[in-house]
């Protein structure tokens, strides 16, 4: 090996240049140079031997002359088993002679070749490695050796494959995800060989209630059980994906007639006639299925999926879980279904696109007619559809599980805005923010409110949360605890639209409520010809007996205001004082009041 690998040309030049020395001097110098040469070779060999990358040195025919420890550990072959053997015998059968000849040709012509290849170890196991092979030439430019540097990338490739696999898979169910489904559907459409394609869009009904009442881990197990039932109804060639929390989608192709996908949908519905059992709890759940066909209902993946989802919304209109909730898409499907579908999709991105804003309506001390508070009211201005009524989009946000995110956004920004007004020196006012029943179902809600107060550095005594009277229909015991935890934070609580629900005095006495807001429909009645004042008067009287203050909503006339003053109603709001306005306009009213 010492003769074949020339690693120090300078030493050779030194030997040639010492011919004019006497024999004794030359002999001594030769020995010195040889010792230096040997020591350097030993040093290089130690460095190569300890290298973490596998190194193999062959002669020009590919016969192995030397290997390091990393190479033997990687391949499983000892140095005795490899030295003298031809390197080609270690190659995997995955590579034919054409590939090998091409690689050798590149090395011979360019002096180096690099690439990822597969090889087999002593046990026959295939491993991935990055090989860099280059030639070594002598002083006459003749190839005398080849060196291969091998880096084991098996684990790296496994991780890459796992990442690639997971990028197309849903972690919970191991089904495909939305990204892969769209790719698969578009690919099948582009083939244009089989026009029998259909998309089934599945959504579990009222699944959010399971998560809210039994917990998300329980809900996850329900989804996994549901997936088992789906798989029992589909064929191997069908593609099933999970594209949302409780939303699934199926691509069916190569079927003989429409009855194939109808039968599949029926199979899934019928599979739920038997309850899903999780942790010994039996749950009766139902699913709504919408179906869209290619090419009549859409000529690309996006259109097919959208129309299948619209059909699914139509299927949800059947409230009886024992009746079949299947709907085929048709072009003139109910416009309200299409509108709800569009709003449902657009509202998902309303916060990110900064389409949401908060308007403020003053709350007045009726005796002084000065501003003492403001109700924060959510507004949505869509770039295409303009202002969308809260009565229209709030129920949709509640249905698709976005109300928590939106509610937190309103609460945080309302607190931040009020803190800004206080920092500017305006008289401190109380901000009232509406809270949905869905938010109150969350045990973590008080903690979320506390975090917002701390984040905005806002004093809790200036925050009032408004809840609807519909909490009476909820599990009062669960919500009562959450309300008391909110009260402990120093937050005021009021019941909105009072008189339209079914609250009882017994329930009101249990809840830490400091205010009732009389629904505007009763305030409007004060002005009509029958002078219907009994209900607002009864609410004011009852509230006083319970030491609860009253806010009258929807005050629009002087007569209404005088009636409320005469009957000692503490607070009011309505168009008589101001419509809801944006933060800039509301600040102007605070400025006017400050300098009044």
Summed up, what is this model?
By secondary structure, the protein is of the alpha/beta class.
Written account of the structure:
This protein is of the alpha/beta class and 596 residues long. The protein folds into 3 domains: 51-158, Beta-Lactamase; 168-333, Reverse transcriptase/Diguanylate cyclase domain (Alpha-Beta Plaits); 347-594, TIM Barrel (Alpha-Beta Barrel). It contains 22 helices and 21 strands. An 8-stranded mixed beta barrel has the order 13-14-16-17-18-19-20-21, surrounded by 4 helices. A 5-stranded antiparallel sheet has the order 2-1-5-4-3, with helices on both faces. Strands 7-8-6-11-12 form a 5-stranded mixed sheet, sandwiched between helices. The model is unreliable at 1-21 (pLDDT under 50).
Strand content range: 15-25%
Q: Major sheet: order of its strands?
A: 13-14-16-17-18-19-20-21
Residue runs with pLDDT of under 50 for 5 or more positions: 1-21
CATH superfamily of the largest domain: EAL domain
Specify the number of helices. 22
What's the CATH architecture name of the largest domain?
Alpha-Beta Barrel
Q: What coarse outline follows from CA principal-axis ratios?
A: elongated
* Quaternary structure classification: single chain
User: How large is the radius of gyration?
Assistant: 39 Å
Q: List the domain count as a whole number.
A: 3
DSSP summary, beta strand count: 21
The major beta sheet can be summarized as:
8 strands, mixed, barrel
Gap between N and C termini, in Å? 102 Å
What is the highest CATH level, the class of the largest domain?
A: Alpha Beta
CATH fold group of the largest domain: TIM Barrel
Mean pLDDT: 83
Q: Kindly name the structural category.
A: alpha/beta
- The helix fraction, in percent, is 40-55%
């Amino acid at each position: 090996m010492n003769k074949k690998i020339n690693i120090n040309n300078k030493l050779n030049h030194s030997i040639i240049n010492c011919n004019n020395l006497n024999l004794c001097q030359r002999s001594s110098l030769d020995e010195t140079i040889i010792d230096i040469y040997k020591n350097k070779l030993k040093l290089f060999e130690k460095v190569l031997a300890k290298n973490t990358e596998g190194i193999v040195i062959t002669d020009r025919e590919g016969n192995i002359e030397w290997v390091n420890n990393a190479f033997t550990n990687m391949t499983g072959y000892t140095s005795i088993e490899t030295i003298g053997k031809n390197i080609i015998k270690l190659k995997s059968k995955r590579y034919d002679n054409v590939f090998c000849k091409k690689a050798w040709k590149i090395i011979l012509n360019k002096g180096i070749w690099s690439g990822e290849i597969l090889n087999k170890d002593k046990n026959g196991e295939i491993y991935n490695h990055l090989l860099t092979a280059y030639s070594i030439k002598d002083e006459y430019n003749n190839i005398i050796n080849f060196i291969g540097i091998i880096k084991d990338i098996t684990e790296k490739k496994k991780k890459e494959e796992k990442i690639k696999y997971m990028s197309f898979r849903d972690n919970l169910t191991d089904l495909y995800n939305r990204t892969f489904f769209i790719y698969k559907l578009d690919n099948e459409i582009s083939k244009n060989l089989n026009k029998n394609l259909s998309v089934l869009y599945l959504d579990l009904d009222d699944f959010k209630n399971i998560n809210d009442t039994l917990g998300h881990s329980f809900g996850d197990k329900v989804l996994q059980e549901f997936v088992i039932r789906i798989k029992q109804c589909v064929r191997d060639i069908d593609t099933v994906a999970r594209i949302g929390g409780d939303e699934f989608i199926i691509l069916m192709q190569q079927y003989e007639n429409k009855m194939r996908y109808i039968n599949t949908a029926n199979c899934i519905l019928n599979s739920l006639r038997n309850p899903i059992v999780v942790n010994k709890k039996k749950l009766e759940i139902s699913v709504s299925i919408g179906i869209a066909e290619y090419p009549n209902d859409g000529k690309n993946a996006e259109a097919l999926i959208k129309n299948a989802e619209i059909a699914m919304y139509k299927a949800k209109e059947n409230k009886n879980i024992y009746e079949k909730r299947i709907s085929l898409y048709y072009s003139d499907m109910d416009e309200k279904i299409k509108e709800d579908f569009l709003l449902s999709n657009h509202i998902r991105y309303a916060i990110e696109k900064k389409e949401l804003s908060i308007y403020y309506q003053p709350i007045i001390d009726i005796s002084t007619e000065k501003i003492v508070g403001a109700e924060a009211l959510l507004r949505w201005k869509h770039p295409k559809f303009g202002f969308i009524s809260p009565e229209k989009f709030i129920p949709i946000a509640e249905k698709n599980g976005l109300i928590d995110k939106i509610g937190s956004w309103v609460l945080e920004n309302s607190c931040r805005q009020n803190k800004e007004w206080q920092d500017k020196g305006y008289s401190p006012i109380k901000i009232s923010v509406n809270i949905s029943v869905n938010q109150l179902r969350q045990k973590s809600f008080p903690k979320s409110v506390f975090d917002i107060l701390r984040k905005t550095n806002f004093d809790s005594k200036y925050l009032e949360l408004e809840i609807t009277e519909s909490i009476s229909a909820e599990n009062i015991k669960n919500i009562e605890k959450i309300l008391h935890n909110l009260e402990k934070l120093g937050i005021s609580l009021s019941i909105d639209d009072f008189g339209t629900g079914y609250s009882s005095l017994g329930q009101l006495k249990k809840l830490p409520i400091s205010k009732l807001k009389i629904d505007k429909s009763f305030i409007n009645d004060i002005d009509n010809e029958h002078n219907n004042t009994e209900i607002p008067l009864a609410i004011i009287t009852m509230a006083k007996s319970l030491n609860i203050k009253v806010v009258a909503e929807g005050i629009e006339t002087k007569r209404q205001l005088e009636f409320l003053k005469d009957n000692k109603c503490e607070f009011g709001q309505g168009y008589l004082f101001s419509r809801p306005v944006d933060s800039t306009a509301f600040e102007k009213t605070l400025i006017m009041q400050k300098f009044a």
